[in-house]
Write a structure and sequence with these properties.
It contains four helices and twelve strands. The chain is α+β, with helices and mostly antiparallel strands.
Length: about 230
Amino acid sequence: MLTKKQLDLLEFIHTRVQRDGVPPSFDEMKDALDLRSKSGIHRLITALEERGFIRRLAHRARAIEIVKLPEPLQTKGFRPLVIDGDARNEASVAPANAIPVQVQATELPVMGRIAAGVPIEAISHASHTVAVPTQMVGRGPHYALEVRGDSMINAGINDGDIVVIREQRTADDGDIVVALVIDDNEATLKRFRRRGSTVALEAANPAYETRLFRDDQVKVQGRLVGLIRSY
């Protein structure tokens, strides 16, 4: 859920782009939200990024891509955009010729829930789909899973998150994978380690012990490539 200021900022950017075809400057955002300094805008932008509504683009100073709009704004139409500026200079503003860019989305099946803690039944059937940025997925089949449990919390994976998985049958040491424990018919999300003929499934929470299996007891079902979080 967004605060009123966060929602106001997202709506202001969206409205200006729909009207003018270009995003507002940081100074215009500050004035529109009646803030004393642009540092407040930076804090709001950071909060929006953490909540998955925008994404900062690497190697481009103060470039922000709007990924989605909350439900109250969706009826007003939505076109993804980029806000450019100079992060090295607090006094700088977005260039007047900043060009909106289209963000492609890919629909992935959500294959039920995955345990990041206590065991759950192995995943096999899609329950619904979720839209993810195309940049998050590469070649080959991908799917999504809803996380249940807190055993991977120190890896930034929380209960209720949606993880994006690239389907594959192999993993390197240290990869976070969907592993199927055959004897227990259990699917789990853990960090993968190989120790000779033994496979270790490591939690990212000291409250959970590392689990050891023979390598023929574990089948890798995919590797973590992305995460989606709702607030």
